[in-house]
């Protein structure tokens, strides 16, 4: 595959590479080639694959896809590999994918959540407020009940009660209609010993050119808790929590940031 891309790129001044893959690949053999002008990660193609590709490549549809994993520059950067034995020791704990890269200050080729568009977006007016019972909706309540229907202890339903509302505004500042995926990352107080930031919510928003939409994402009691391995229970740490609204796990892509204390 690498040799094919290199050969085509050596003869074509504008080469767009389309990748069909369900997992990470190393793009380094050709990603910096001067004739590789774009990469379209299409995952597993379906029946309308050809039509969809044409619409995107010729600009008839504005893409808004986001990477569901980090793409490293070196295979060793992931810190894990396929085991050749029947036993595996999961020593990485909660430090998986972007959490591992953040912890070890490793710069990847493309960050988790990364994706481009034919338009641009701006973020503004971040507000963090405590959630009350008035914030429940029928859908949210039903969703919480389904997630916990297997539990005998119904008091665990409170574990998924909304705790904080995170409200902000997204504006399409470009000339094309399009969509953006706002990603909410949460940083815990030091005593929790958690990754530098953890994805706690996201939402795809379709916005017409020059229009704005207000978005509200919720943090539940579960979202602000961590598993205390000493006490063997979910715990809410005391201290400062940092909310970051971003378009990927790259700290350079953080658009809004604020804190709250517990």
Automatic annotation (TrEMBL):
Q: Print the keywords alphabetically.
A: Carbohydrate metabolism, Cellulose degradation, Glycosidase, Hydrolase, Polysaccharide degradation
Recorded catalytic reaction(s): these are: Hydrolysis of terminal, non-reducing beta-D-glucosyl residues with release of beta-D-glucose
The protein's organism comes out as Adineta ricciae (Rotifer)
Q: Which family does it belong to?
A: Belongs to the glycosyl hydrolase 3 family.
Q: Which GO terms describe its molecular function?
A: beta-glucosidase activity
- Domain Fibronectin type III-like, first and last residues per copy: 180-249
For whether the record's keyword set contains Hydrolase, the answer is: yes
Matching SUPFAM superfamilies, A to Z? Beta-D-glucan exohydrolase, C-terminal domain (SSF52279)
In which pathway does this enzyme or protein participate? Glycan metabolism
This protein is called: beta-glucosidase
GO terms classed as biological process: cellulose catabolic process
A Pfam short name: Glyco_hydro_3_C
Q: Does the keyword Hydrolase apply?
A: yes
In short, the EC number is 3.2.1.21
